[in-house]
Amino acid sequence: MRNPTISYSEEAVIDPSAPHGIVAVAGEALADLVPAPVGGYFEIAPGGSPANVAVALARLGVRARLLARIADDMLGRRIRDHLAGNGVEMDHALAASEQSSMAMVAVGPDGGPTYDFRIAGTADWQWTPDELAGALDGPVVALHSGSLALTTPPGAAVLRDLIARAVDTATISYDPNCRPLLMGDPADVLAGAHELLGVADVVKVSSEDLEWLTPGRSPEQVLEDWLGRGPAVVAVTLGGDGVLAGTADGVRSRRPGVPVQVVDTVGAGDTFSAALLAGLHRRGMLGAGARSTLRAVDADTLDALLDEASLAAAITCSRRGADPPTAGDLLARQC
After folding, report:
1. Which CDD domains does the protein's record reference (predicted)?
2. How many other CB atoms are found less than 10 A from the CB of residue 251?
């Protein structure tokens, strides 16, 4: 039976009258070393939270532009091929002289990942202002960023400046996607997150992020706090317990999780962010001109957006690694 709260349809993806604006994604595109199914060794897979979001957007039929510094080495060329092969627009992804960043991934019994990184002096973090001069050219209706890209110097400051410039023309989407091993003092990270909340329109954060950033506070308390700092929509993902969300105009929602056999949760949060943006894109709710409409989103629409994003994330959890669904995959699961 079709779930009536999920409005994703094949027609919405291929309808020529649907919006064609670009969602730009800024941040790292690195190599994940992931456990192989057998043998106790690692396999190399393209990763990085922003890169995963870009791939998920493209698979859902949204024009996705990746703003990334990708090494011109063996790993970097594999990453670039993966992104381009999934339809991500790579004309603003720079060929960097530094080496590729790497993340080693371990998956726990519950499917949750832990990470160990090799990122000192690598390509992803060396942004200069000139490298982003044309990043917002063309019909960019949204800019998404988060994770290590917004906390790792020297490039973090350059990307934060890009976000400040993008506010005048685009919806700003933000996911803290915390990596405690590398981000330093959580109080400093929280202060930086609060600054971004002042310009962000759409915010996704996980309950795990909040446990590190705001220990002792409930997701409900943080939701109210963060909505009061400026965003139109804040969604707190709760793993298998679903998602808690609210809007600037006072709508509140809690949606259940989607039952799924979890293989691992790598890339699930990134898929949620992408599917939420894809749902807003499909409804014509992205772009600075749509900001008032986004802030006034009604309860039924918010529930539908959350259900779509939760389903997409659940499908990713049912697969090994960051392997987000296509629009066709979502359509098949709704029947």
Report:
1. bac_FRK (cd01167)
2. 17
From residue 16, how far is each of 12, 62, 204, 274, 326 by CA, in Å? 9, 13, 29, 21, 18
Residue 18 confidence (pLDDT) above 80 = no
CB neighbourhood size of 332 (10 A): 11
- Give the number of other Cβ atoms within 10 Å of residue 77's Cβ: 14
Q: What is the pTM (predicted TM-score) of this model?
A: 0.91
* pLDDT tens digits, one per residue of 226-270: 999 999 999 999 999 999 999 999 999 999 999 999 988 889 999
Domain boundaries, the chain: 10-334
d(CA 141, CA 138): 9
Q: In what order do the strands lie in the sheet with 42-47?
A: 42-47, 30-35, 102-107, 113-118
30-35 and 42-47 as β-strands: parallel, antiparallel, unpaired? antiparallel
The helix/strand/coil state of 284 is coil
Q: What's phi and psi for 182, nearest 5 deg?
A: -120, -15
Q: Which CATH superfamily is domain 10-334 in?
A: Ribokinase (3.40.1190.20)
Side by side, the strands of the sheet bearing 140-146 are 64-67, 22-26, 140-146, 171-175, 202-206, 233-237, 243-247, 252-255
Cis ω on the peptide bond leading into residue 16 (within 30° of 0)? no
Q: Which residues contact 91 (CB under 8 A, 6 or more apart)?
A: 65
State both tokens at 162. 């890009």
Q: Which residue has the tokens 């409005």?
A: 7
